[in-house]
Amino acid sequence: MTSKILSQAVAASRAAGLALLLAGATAVIPSYAAPVPGHGPESVADLAQGLLGAVVNISTSQTVKGTEGPGAVPMPQLPEGSPFQDFFDDFFKNRDGDKGGGSQKVQSLGSGFVIDAEKGIIVTNNHVIADADDIEVNFSDGITLKATLVGTDTKTDIAVLKVDPKGHKLTAVKFGDSNKMRIGDWVMAVGNPFGLGGSVTLGIVSARNRDINSGPYDDFIQTDAAINRGNSGGPLFNMEGEVIGINTAIISPSGGSIGIGFSIPSQLAAGVVDQLTQYGETRRGWLGVRIQPVTDDIAESLDMATAKGALVAGIMKGGPVDNGSIQPGDVIIKFDGKDIREMRDLPRIVAESPVGKAVDVLIVRKGKEQTVKVTLGRLEDNDKAAATEEGSGDEGGQNGGENAPIATASVLGMTVGELNDEARTKFGIAPDISGVVVTDVAKDSAAAERGIQPGDVITEIAQESVSTPKDVMDRIGALKEQGRKNALLMLASKTGELRFVTIRMD
């Protein structure tokens, strides 16, 4: 009855609309009327049928050891003949009861897809196979093959596996161009949600260039195609059957799909997969700078018309640009012909560039644009030399980490550097003075207002001694995190006279 009433109401409204149009024949119809939206695909059955064979279910198992010592739960002492004796015996024997620790098998499921049928190369997410002891790949035709790990990349959450395809005919898919995808384009996700086997969902590209703070190269495609647990590592297809994304993450309070899923774009994934397949590891370009966003205030102080690019805050000692080609205070606005719209663009573009390549970098230095040429180093080589890797103020972690030494840095309108023999000679600094030397002071900066000059030496910040440019940056960063508005500096003149100066940090 309700449906009938609703149908009648709809019909009546349509009739009323038609009457209004006829009655208002003399009315002016706006020329900017919105275009009639196009229809979605009538069916993706043929497309799905040709792709399902290339999408696989990945099953992993891992042996997790129990805890021993104070954290272990010992078997309780029960009265002889207790009715609970058998129950506890069974439970604790399964945990290697003598040690109170034991071990158990943990299994997980994910998705993946074949990109090379002859070699048996399969792509998935790193988190799907991380720490796995055994990896099995289940195909849509019921075949199960053991897989070996070719290589992983934790920064992009990509892993490459290999199976022996001998005696089996595999189906492969290829990467498409994610750069061609527009918001509103139809996409199809295929995977194994909750271990149910090949499932197909349809949706659109909801957004692009999403940063979900999962890694230094975040540039996700957002889609409303249903993605659930178990879909991780599965492909996101365009309507030509090309992989334009690897489904990786969802936002969900309940664990199920609410129409907000994220995929690694093929533009980023294809290069990583190619390197993992060839070398078993990634070989990323490295510039060796610490960077920070260009705010409106910073842009104004640097005579820039708009806030864009990545501000160089520090130069890594021994890095590719520790030769003066790029300096603290420079703003990188274009790298190898690609625009740097905001800070996070630079790490990704640099990482995608070949190691050893000489590239043109367009910078803004003291209000003027100029092009410098730099030769890229290798990020992973620098990683191995440093103890850690990530750093929020770094070139996407590309300086080798928070502990990597900094040759020079830009902070509070000052350029600071190591107080070495060269600096002592240049500025005439006495040998008994220690700290960090100020090598340049920006005009109209907070430091300039306080009378700080090149050759001054920063010995303390907020009553803590500093001896390297990194110490200065870390101390200023800590004060900002504490909500401080000013920084108290102890400065030494060239002859050793001390004075305190307070500098604004807002």
TrEMBL record:
Residues 276-367, 412-506 form the PDZ domain. It catalyses: Acts on substrates that are at least partially unfolded. The cleavage site P1 residue is normally between a pair of hydrophobic residues, such as Val-|-Val. It comes from the Bacteria. Residues 1-33 form the signal peptide. It is found in: Periplasm. Residues 383-405 are annotated as: Disordered. Pfam families: PDZ_2, Trypsin_2. Its EC number is 3.4.21.107. CDD domains: cpPDZ1_DegP-like. Keywords: Hydrolase, Periplasm, Protease, Repeat, Serine protease, Signal, Stress response. Belongs to the peptidase S1C family. PANTHER family: PERIPLASMIC SERINE ENDOPROTEASE DEGP-LIKE-RELATED, SERINE PROTEASE FAMILY S1C HTRA-RELATED. This is Probable periplasmic serine endoprotease DegP-like. It comes from Aquamicrobium soli.
